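FAQ: What does a ligand-bound record look like?

Like this one, built around iron/sulfur cluster:
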Amino acid sequence: MRVALFITCVNDTLYPRTGQATVALLRRLGVDVEFPAQQTCCGQMHYNTGYRRQAEPLVRGFAEAFAGYDAIVAPSGSCAAMVRDVHPRIAGRSMGRVPRDRVAEVVPKVYELSEFLVDVLRVTDVGAYFPHRVTYHPTCHSLRLLRVGDRPLRLLRAVRGLDLVELEGADECCGFGGAFAVKNPAVSAAMCSDKVRHAADTGAEVLCAADNSCLMHIGGTLERQRAGVRTLHLAEILASTQDDPHGSGWADGERSPA
Amino acid sequence: MTAVHLGMPAFPSFPEAAEAATTDAQLRRNLRNATHTIRDKRARAVAELSDWAGLRAAAAAIKNRTLRHLDHYLLQLEEAVTKAGGRVHWAIDAADANRIVAELVKATGETHVVKVKSMATQEIGLNEALAAEGITAYETDLAELIVQLGDDRPSHILVPAIHRNRSEIREIFVRAMGRWGRAAPDGLTDRPADLAEAARLHLREKFLSAKVAVSGANFMVAETGTLVVVESEGNGRMCLTLPETLISVVGIEKIVPTWQDLEVYLQLLPRSSTAERMNPYTSTWTGTAEGDGPREFHLVLLDNGRTGALADQVGRQALRCIRCSACLNVCPVYERAGGHAYGSAYPGPIGAILTPQLRGITSALDASLPYASSLCGACYEVCPVAIDIPEVLVHLRERVAETGKGHPAERTAMRAARWVLEDPARLARAQRLATRARRFRPRHLPGPAAAWTDTREVPRIPEESFRDWWRRTQGGGPRAGGGPAGKGGR
Ligand code: SF4
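The answer part, i.e. the structure of the complex:
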């Protein structure tokens, strides 16, 4: 099975550690993951802001970069949803500028990380160790577009040492929404401050999600409010092991999971 | 054509109106309590039905087919209504509809009408138009009454006074009932039963004296020319049966072909809106009947921008809406912004996609509505007729961006971002540039980015992008199976 990592432009540029964790985790599970260097971005920002035509070359580029792989794994629910849900629509309306058949070929191969682990590799216990109190925010696109269900929770429950606590109003949007955070800052901030309050109420040290764009928004607010909770991508928790709790074997960079 | 009227004075833009609402603690508490209560009840009522998904798909399919052949069904309806003794009037826009209704009322010689709660008449601003002609319209739905007495505007489709709590309602009753008719009883408390009794006494007087009623309709059945109103209070039925003349103003998209089709919606609507298995009152009427109910019946069929929406392949799904308001009750943006911020009779997610389609995107307010969403998808999930509201929002954003209503700076930035992202080498260069500036981590950014840093820290730029790290380390050492680091990438 040829497996490709779709890092996503946000992780690539701002959260390389999440990518490093994903690579370490997959290799630990025996997957020889490749990084197709031609990849860039799924075009979500352009499409969601109303620039569908600008997203077209990115959709075409995605289909070219990932052609021929058996599985494409993305540590981002939102970008995986963009590809699965929207790329075929963009191709369909592109008057041939984006080849429909090539898009149709790669789209079913795209998995969000927890889907790939649970559905393709059929593991829930990935051998991780993370002795901390954690709460999980499902993120809207994982929840409602991909319908990942409880897969991330099953993975987290199997992590040794991890104390999983429930987040009140978990399925409510954090208020990020890309352009929304900038175009409607007051409502976005009001939504996030509720999310942050619920996170602080759990007494968790870590708020975990499978999407760094939402975590950037929530984490940025937590940090500004000095709420004492930090954010961490699911991959980074799953990559931590008893032998290497700080990920020093697989990552460089400042954000340490333990 | 005159500008399409949707029944409300415009705010400058959604973000500005919403920002004001987020600072109103009382409003936020009222909205939060109300929407969360309805939300949870709806979820339970829907979970009771094992074939909800099937019903929802059927409801979407029936409306789609009906909208495709709307011309046919409208003529069929007109014929059936006429045969049953009613008269059909066609109104191209709000001004047209208001003129027709005013003339019909004047022909009766009356200066007072009672009203059944109706979105269509709010949309066209009928009460104000009638007032200008010297005709007073009395709202008889309890919540609409509260809004009218409070000289206020509705903020929710189903619960127009959702932004008011009961002590505010008591105050409004005490202050204003006397001006409109029977005054509130002395010593009125804010117990719900007392408030309801005060409203009952006030309204009873209106029902018994009114000669003309104005209504909307939830559905129109084309095969028999039957109109349908569903409600909880019974006040609607009073208006529909007691007066001598009944005038119904209904959007052309409210048609269902047959009674069998109607059955699907009568299951979906109460569970989605009030979380009831069945609504307490379902009134149906077909033209006029000798010795029973109104002697005269007029149906005003309202276009007011609907034909334009119908022509849009993505946007037309908004015309399937049955105004259940489930999308409002789950919307995190509506909950914080309140209904008034949407600047039309249609608040919440459905308003954000309907208003710009009916009214166009010429004003700053209407151009801001498609962005009044984080695209979280909660609305689509609960919509009983499966309107993909996020899809339509994004589609309308495209229209805003294309018609030059968008920000020129935004367009330039999007083009520049696309140019960088189109080519991995350019992306890598941009990432290295950012890395070099990483020591500089501003707490406050200028321009539109200030919207981010007002409440959040900006993320740290890492020392190295993932892409560069992979190139340098071939993915960080030994590959799966313990072999040497391979070639990584292709
Ligand atoms: S859009 Fe759907 S959920 Fe919203 S009011 Fe209309 S029918 Fe109900």
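Follow-up question: can I read anything off the structure? Yes, for example: The pocket of iron/sulfur cluster is lined by residues B 272, 321-327, 350, 382-385, 387 (CB under 6 Å).
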